[in-house]
Please model this.
Amino acid sequence: MQTGKCSIAIDGPAGAGKSSVARLLAKRLGFLHIDTGALYRALTLEVLRNSVKPTDAQEVAKIAEQANIEITPGSEGIRVLLNGEDVTKAIREPMVSENVSLVAQHPEVREYLLVLQRQLAADGGTVMDGRDIGTVVLPEADLKIFLTASAEERARRRMKELRAQGYKVTYKDVLLSIRARDNLDAERLVAPLRAATDAVPVDTTGKDVDTVVEEILGHLSTVGGLDGCSTEQ
Ligand code: DC
Model:
């Protein structure tokens, strides 16, 4: 890591607002936003396209080795490329959402994406969001935030997002799927979803993105602001 270039880790369950908060926070700081869920989603898309069972560890690992996943900054946030194809939209389809936790549970997948994530964050000046950023990917991050919100609020947000994209979903189904994903993410043997002991918990229930970003900027100043960032990762 370069001198004075901060890395900020944001973890939390599905729908806690990680991506929106991380995107705006990165914009405010002039940092690169790395949405690590997008990497798991891109890999899941490739698994499904190859008709591989998401539970088949060996076959999924083969796909992970062959797939070329990239993240590039775009005008409306990051763009995700899978073997050179822009899959930014495709990775948000419900089919991918339903299978991504299964793909993410394989140790081989996590090991492969761990290397990629550390490469992406190597220069600092990054806001990285995911499930295990503060605990596994960037244990030396300068600031760690653990975002939460009630399952009901998270389901309402996801439902709004999906309906805006034209999907006909019910609140009950979205809530069930959020709860199922919470369980899979929290119970997975490798790198389960949990807050790092030195993470700052931030509850986003009833708060808009700007309010949450302001709160995080406040926490950043308590660790010395941008000048207080460590020189080594
Ligand atoms: O944040 P998201 O909903 O786009 O994440 C999709 C899935 O990827 C989520 O169910 C768990 C997995 N994931 C993970 O296991 N570790 C990460 N660092 C990021 C995401």
Observations:
- Residues 14, 36-37, 40-41, 100-101, 104, 130-133, 181, 185 surround 2'-deoxycytidine-5'-monophosphate (CB under 6 Å).
